[in-house]
Amino acid sequence: YGAVGIAMLGGVPTMTALLIAAPIAGASSGMTGQYETQISKAYFASETTAHAYALLSVVSAIAFGVGGIAAGLTLTHIAPAWGLVIDAVLTAVLAITVTTTAPPVEPTIPRRPDRPFHNVWQALATNRRLRWTTVLGASSAFFLAPVLTLVVPLAEDLQHKPAGAGAGLLLSAFAIGGLMTPSLVKAAVRRVSSLIAGEVTGALAGATLVVLGAVSLVPDFEVDLIAWVGIGVAFGAFWSATKALVHGAAAEAGAPEDAVTNLAAMLTVAMFTAPVGSLLCSIAIGSLSAESAVLAAGACAVTWNLVSIRRLRRVADDPAPVPA
Fold first, then answer.
1. CA nearest neighbour of 257 among 136, 119, 101
2. Which of 109, 145, 169 is nearest to 242 (CA)?
3. 258 burial level (CB within 10 Å; 0-12, 13-18, 19+)
């Protein structure tokens, strides 16, 4: 991100710089997604992966809210490229902190893979619970994640001017909802497994998108804006809880030393589906409207998760891993 920002400040066309850096950023994001769950579990000394990720979501939500407000206020006065440079500096500070500070609990040493790609697909082929967890992660990335990645055009099309301030408002609302993640995760797993709980929170996140799309049709902008904040908080809570439960279910779908491999399998599939969802959502925004895109994404998420819950009840009660 720092290199992209510097290149853009140096006069390189924005799209060219982003396209060159996208593969590197994607690979880095994929690696981070696999290890951050296990690292968080060690640093928070949590008993379960879902709880550790929920605590991580609280910290992220605070930073997300501060960053959203700061971006909304500053990007109207400075070049967007500076935002990428600032992101790179903050990431470097995080990397230095992690490498120089030992966690209170040593993380589980992952099984050394002899053939990494083969092991990932083998895990999916032989572990039914992991397959269902992967389906949940992929569907969440497809239906729900585009709302976060396309928040600026959504804010613009939903008639918030300036778009940067509207996007910052929505991001801050999402972040406030993320603060509720530990409580939601704790309550959700009391009676059902992380897998089924993730389907329930995913359906609730989809329902909030349906409400957001419907309320955005109200002509009274002030009422619309107030509703944005409330619905954004609800979506942030359910979305963050879904992510925590998905990561927890994937990491705990097998032996502890296989957690990284199982997370890699789930995230690999989810990261391939997320761009497709974002592309279809952007097409819907351009050809129809943001309201239609949000309504459709939310309705599909609700339907998908509700249909899956009944079948998942049988899978979640089986011991892991479950032979194909």
1. 119
2. 145
3. buried
Q: Which two tokens stand for residue 107?
A: 């993380």
pLDDT of 301 reads 94
Whether the bond between 80 and the residue before it is cis, its omega within 30 degrees of 0, is no
SS3 228: helix
The predicted-structure confidence for 87-130, as pLDDT tens digits, reads as follows 888 888 888 887 887 777 666 655 655 666 777 788 888 888 88
Residue 279's alpha-carbon distances to 54, 186, 212, 226, 274, in angstroms, are 28, 34, 20, 29, 9
CA–CA separation, 168 vs 298, rounded Å? 21
Alpha helix positions (H), the chain:
2-9, 14-44, 49-74, 80-100, 116-126, 128-143, 146-149, 151-157, 163-178, 181-188, 194-215, 221-251, 259-287, 290-316
Task: Name the CA radius of gyration of the chain, rounded.
Answer: 20
Q: And the tokens for 26? A: 């994607």
- Segments of the chain with pLDDT less than 70: 1, 26-38, 45-47, 68, 72, 105-116, 150, 152-167, 218-225, 313-324
Percent of the chain with pLDDT over 90: 13
pTM, two decimals, is: 0.74
Neighbours of 314 (CB within 10 A): 9
SS3 324: coil
DSSP code, position 288: T
